[in-house]
Amino acid sequence: MVKFILRQNKNNKSTAYGKWYAYPKPDETMDLAALAKHMEEHNTGFSEAMCTGVMKAMVKCIKEQILAGKNVKIDDLAIFSIGLKNRMGADTPEEFSVATNIEGVKLRARATGILSNAQLTLSASLKRATSILGSTTSGGSTSTGGSDNQGGGAPGGETGGSGSDADIE
């Protein structure tokens, strides 16, 4: 069940000013150890320690490969690549310099296969959540997949379903 909250667009320069949009409200963030334990409990045939070791090695290797200028595709998860944070544009190619025009790099991930936006939309079950003093209570109605989902994404916002690359920062 994916819980969401509603937020109002407060940017008065936006055409979406004053409109309300849904944003996901995760219950928790699992770390690698918790994910490894979960995998072990699914009778994978591998211990928690083995799962942790393999995933840590995978993360290290993905970093190594994207810093070498390669994209890394993990089927049914994502294509990982490097992105650039441009500080500002140069007037001409000759005036461009890394020090002046590039702020840094970032990890990009584009969902694939069973984790693609389209597949997640078909499988998702959504429920409105409200937060009261740090605790989460449920409210609203539940809907599953397709066009009955409550809420929607702000143009270019967190929940936009455009299928574009997600930037992980």
Question: Any descriptors?
Answer:
8 strands; 4 helices; alpha+beta; single chain; 169 residues
Verbal overview:
The chain is α+β, with helices and mostly antiparallel strands and 169 residues long. The chain is 24% helix and 33% strand. The protein has a 4-stranded mixed beta sheet, with no helix packed on it. A hairpin with a 3-residue loop joins strand 3 (72-74) and strand 4. It has a domain at 2-29 and 73-160. The protein is built from 4 helices and 8 strands. It has helices at 32-41, 48-67, 98-101, 117-123; strands spanning 2-8, 20-24, 72-74, 78-86, 102-111, 125-132, 135-144, 166-168. Residues 132-165 have low confidence and may be disordered.
Strand-helix topology:
Blueprint lengths: L1 E7 L11 E5 L7 H10 L6 H20 L4 E3 L3 E9 L11 H4 E10 L5 H7 L1 E8 L2 E10 L21 E3 L1
Parallel strand pairs: 1-6
Antiparallel strand pairs: 1-2, 3-4, 4-5, 5-8, 6-7
Shape: flat
Biggest β-sheet strands, sense, barrel: 4 strands, mixed
Mean pLDDT equals 82
What is the beta-strand fraction? 25-35%
Number of strands: 8
Straight-line N-to-C gap: 25 Å
Which quaternary structure do these chains form? single chain
Extract low-pLDDT stretches.
132-165
Number of helices: 4
* Lateral arrangement of strands in the main beta sheet: 2-1-6-7
Please provide the ordered H/E string of secondary-structure elements. EEHHEEHEHEEE
Q: Share of helix among residues?
A: 10-25%
Computed over alpha carbons, the radius of gyration is 20 Å
